[in-house]
Amino acid sequence: QAEDGIRDVERSRGLGDVYKRQAYALAEALFGVGGAVISGSDVSLVYDGLIEINETERYKQILSKATTLSFLTAMISLPISGLIALHNIYTPLLIISISFGFKAVMFLFVYEPERKKAESINGATVKSIKLLIHSKFLISIFIATFSLSVFGRAVFWSYQPKLFALNISTFEIGLIFATMNLIAALSSTIMGKVKQKFELLAVYAFLVIETISYLVIWKLHSLLILTAIYALQITRGGRAPIISQMIQRKLSSDLRATFTSFISAITNLAFFIYSLLLNFYNVTIDTTVFSAMIGATLLLPFFFILNNFKLNNNELNYTLQVLK
C-alpha cells in the first residue's frame, strides 16, 4: 500500500499493485480459507451455548462486545506495529503469526455445548445450499454480506492511496486509520443494542451508506472523502453483530457453522477473483471504487425486493420440511 500511495494517483492501480505479487495473492487465499472455517465455528459455539441457558437474545450483545474489543485492539496496535516495522517490516507479521498460534491452543480448551451435529460435512453443505435457495430472507442476507464484504474490502484498499494523493502525511494517515477503528468500535457497541424489529432496517441503512460513500470516494478528490471513509466505518463495525444474529436465529444447530462458513467462503473467493480481475485489466484506484459502487448499486434493489414480503415465522420449519 505504501509503495502504491507514493505514486501519482493517475498511475496508481490499487489492488492491481498489491496482487501483482504472488505472495500476497497466496496469503489472501489462505487467509480467506482460514477465515471461512473460523467464522462458522466460533459464532455457532457461542449461539449454541446461549441456547443451553435460554439466553439467545444476548448473542448480539456478546458479539458486539467482542467486535468492539477487536477494533479497539486494532486502534492501539496500529501505531505500535508501525514503530516496530520501522526497525524490521517483517516483525509485526511474525508477532501476528505467533498470536494466531496461541489462539489455536486456547481453542483446544473451549467448552463445546450439547447440540445436534451434522451427519457429514458434505451433507451439511448440500443442506445449507438448499436452505439458501428456498429462503428469500437468507438470500437477501447473503446479498448484503456479499456487497459489504467484497466491495467493502476492495474500497478499503483505496483509502491510503487516495489520502496520499491529497498530500496527507503518513503520520496523519495513521491517525485517520486509528480513528476509523474507534468509529467502527462505537458502531458495533450501538448496533449490539438495536432491537430485533429494527435489524432489517439497519441492514438497509448499511447498504445505502455503502453505495453513497463509494460515490463520494470515486467522484471527489478532496478532504470531503474523509466523511465517506468514516461513514463506511459505521457499516464495518455494525454489520457483524446484526447480520450474524439474524442468520443464527434462522438456522438449526447442525447447520449454523457450515452455513456461515459457506457464506464466508463464497465472499472470500469472490473477493479474490474480483481482485485478480482488477489486476488483469490494470485498473486505477478510481476505477476500482467505481466498479464497487456499480456492484453495490445493482445489488441494493434485489435486497429490497426479497424483503418486500411478510416473513413467515415458521419459514425455517417449512424449509427444513422441503429439504427432507
Topology:
Layout: H1 2-5, H2 15-18, H3 22-52, H4 59-87, H5 91-107, H6 121-134, H7 136-156, H8 159-165, H9 170-191, H10 199-219, H11 225-250, H12 253-280, H13 285-306, H14 315-323
Helix pairs in contact: 3-12, 4-9, 4-11, 6-7, 6-12, 6-14, 7-10, 7-11, 7-12, 7-13, 9-11, 10-11, 10-13
What does this protein look like?
- It is a single chain.
- The chain is mainly alpha-helical and 324 residues long.
- Helices cover 79% and strands 0% of the residues.
- Residues 1-20 and 309-313 have low confidence and may be disordered.
Shape descriptor = globular
Radius of gyration: 20 Å
Helix-strand category: mainly alpha
Low confidence ranges: 1-20, 309-313
The oligomeric state is: single chain
Task: Give the fraction of residues assigned to helices.
Answer: over 70%
> How can the largest sheet be summarized?
none
* Number of helical segments with 4 or more residues: 14
Strand-and-helix sequence, N→C?
Answer: HHHHHHHHHHHHHH
What are the salient characteristics of this protein?
single chain, 324 residues, mainly alpha, globular, disordered N terminus
Summarize the structure.
The protein has helices at residues 2-5, 15-18, 22-52, 59-87, 91-107, 121-134, 136-156, 159-165, 170-191, 199-219, 225-250, 253-280, 285-306, 315-323. With 324 residues, the chain is mainly alpha-helical.
